[in-house]
Amino acid sequence: MRTQTLMAKAIRRSLIATAATSFAMSGVVFANETTGNGAEEVERIEVTGSRIKRTDMETSAPIHVMDAEQIKMSGFTNVEDILNQLPQLETASNAFQSNGASGTASLDLRGLGSNRTLVLINGRRMQAGSITSQTADINQIPAALIRRVEVMTGGAAAVYGADAVAGVVNFIMDSDFDGISINVGASGYQHKNDNSYIQGLMDEKGFEYPSGSTGVDGKAYNIDLAIGSDFADGKGHAVAYAVWRRNDELLQGERDYSSCALNGSQSACGGSANTPLAHFDIYPVVNGKVDYAQNFWGYTDPDGNGFKPDDGYRYNYAPVNHFMRPNERISLGSFLNYEISDHARPYVELSFMQNRTAGQIAESGTFFNEEYLMDYNNPLLTDLQKQQLQSQFNQTDVDQFVAYIGKRNVEGGPRSNNLEHNSYRILTGMEGDINDNWTYDVSFNYSATSSSSVYQNDLLAPKIAPRVGAIDTECVEADGCLYYNVFEPDGVTAEQAAQLAGVGVQTGLVTQTIYSGYVTGDIGVTIPSASDPIAMVFGFERREQDYERISDTVYEEGQLLGQGGPITSLYGEIDVNELYTELQIPVLDNLGFDLGARYSDYSSSGGNWTYKVGADYTLADAYMFRASFNRAVRAPNVSELFNAQNIGLWSGADGCATDEDGNITFSEAQCANTGVTIDQYGNIGSSPAGQYNEFAGGNPDLEPEEAETITLGLVANPLDNFSFSLDYYNIEMESVISTVGAERILNICAETGDSAFCQNVQRSASGSLWLGKSGYVVNLSDNIGGRSWEGIDAAAQYNIELGSGDLSFDIIGSYAMKKEIQPIKGDDDLAYDCAGTISSDCFATPDWRHTLTAKYTASDWVLAAKWRYFGAIDYDGTADARLSEQGGIDAYNYFDLNGTYVLTDYMSVTAGMNNLFDKEPPMVGNSISTNANTIAGFYDTLGRFMHVSVNLKF
To answer: What average pLDDT score do residues 192-219 get?
Structure first.
């Protein structure tokens, strides 16, 4: 064995040293410095949740820490995939969304919404991520440069601003990196397609599907480069980085469990009635009025025999949809600091990101968008079709009828939304000592995101009517107009489809300008019973947020049939001026209080106060009891205030429509509450795709929402090698800025007849909520009732020396006791609890969820095994019959195995496998699926995940 130098050993240890660190649950004391007189001075740092510097990570509010080694060994290069392993987070925008995807990635603490989770970089807030999102896009954060992530879950509005209702996720970047680091990685997914249940359903329909092993797909590649060094004799330090990442697309047709679109009950492969052989919903015109009591529902007979009554023929739109979007991302940035003197230390942070992705979904169609008035002189109708309709409706050649048409544009190919985001951030400031006791920090932060969305291959609504022969329209073939012959099998050609295709373009810019400054230090006053003096912070902040989204005429007028309605341009700006203070009061050496207050003056809603009170008490240097109270008042953002009100789509079920199994959820009397007539009851068809119309949008009359958060906790270190923490939380919100939910409004109306809800249900003349645009549910943003969240977070760590290394066990878990939503303030009868429940109103929320990691650290290698547990979830609803029969979603267990090996003094290899046993995600029906028959991105979505990376560090 060759002899190693001390330097080589130090380098080797540094490559894997952080593998021994874990979530910060017990007090972590930072490096000591020796003063000139030999006394030790403990370094103080700023910890998320306060601008008063301290010597450990434990505060009166709970903070969980994920370090760089944990991030690296997870194998993920998407930051949202990394953090979604924490039990306190619900999945939000992610790469597993296609239809309606914003192309961004966001975080959602406690499931309170991404707009209530504040994301920081080095303690400073990020800007909105795109023209379609008001939340931070964490794609901007290079995973390879993260030193640690601090997640504060106790509310932090008084310290950082009122949008920190649920808490703060603070990314601490490695701005002190020294040397050269090159990291090259690759990853991919693998799955064995052997789901006999859904394969049986596809066999019944004659659908194709994959079977057996997929091989490695969904591949991703990344190259990370970082360079850091001191300069000017150690007075300054600079770090520069460049990151490239690309992943391939993965279609739903590459997994058997997503190769067909399940219907709402999971009893069959459903799909869409917008079919290659066009579907028709036809009603006669009698005495000048449409008679909705009579109708024909069917499609073009494939054998050319006119119309054929509907027999369940549907289009399987699933296979061509993206399960995971393709993505290519480039990030560049630098960190620079320089010490002019103890009193002046300027710093600069620069970053740029270009992110390009595309969301592909199934071909466009006519989508029963419009009621076309026709007569029997229509040149496209066959003689047999005329006879069939006249016979059914007792009409003659001089009569008229109306038709809703559902034709899938298979001749034109899939739709694609090509998204590009260019984000940059410029931060510059100065910090320094005022005197021995006080320091200051002033900064200027300008950040912006320019976005573009180019939606291709959708059909243009105004061009349909003349090309299907509607009355009072004209298609002159001599002028080049081609009829869209939906009445005959194979009647539509690629040339006909091309005349209907359109492109919609949106562009825009989101900017944020922040002027900030604060001073912090001790006031020189010490309570006689304590050793440390009282410390304070005084600060100000001004934020200017500008939002501009420009839609072209195609979007503005709602011409694209696949968009559900118009998407108008949006302009808005919000300015806020804030003053804040914090106070840390040591009463005893083992008892302290934290106080904080912030006054915010919004240009949109006026002024309001937020504040916090916290306390921590340490017993026998081993047990710390902590408690905190936070009050937040969050003002509405630009989108919530100014987004246009228009017709869009919601996913779920109409309980007064006859589903594909012939069932109607509500009684005739209940449906009458929702506007269903006696003649319509039993004759309203459900949407095969589970999509219905809603009238939704912003509300300029919104008021701020209020929240109060209480936490009570215990941090214990009873043994040198064992520590744990328990934290109870209670979050109460009032005047919540949200929507009640279209299906919830519909169901409450049916069950109670309450006019406050029933006036929001507007059925079409046929009783439908999905045919055409005249039937919809009004579901506007408003200050609705309240929310009440309650639960317990738990964490523990145990480590021992074993052989020549260290063995550690870490667990972090969260127990949801209550997740109650109150649609109307003060009406407890309408409240519903989402804890341990999934429904069309409730995101999947296990009562208990945890991650347990066992890790062995030796001199040259680290091996970690992880157990991720999702507790069982009940189903609250009736639409998903199979889920009801199963009692909901069973508990899920995932096992990961990852390791790092140091090959040389300058090279290490990390490899691993997540979801070791290739467990499929749970299947759900189309009324509650977020994508591809499952809860995409929350459970492991694509099967087994494998990764490998090589790191060179000099």
So the answer is: 95
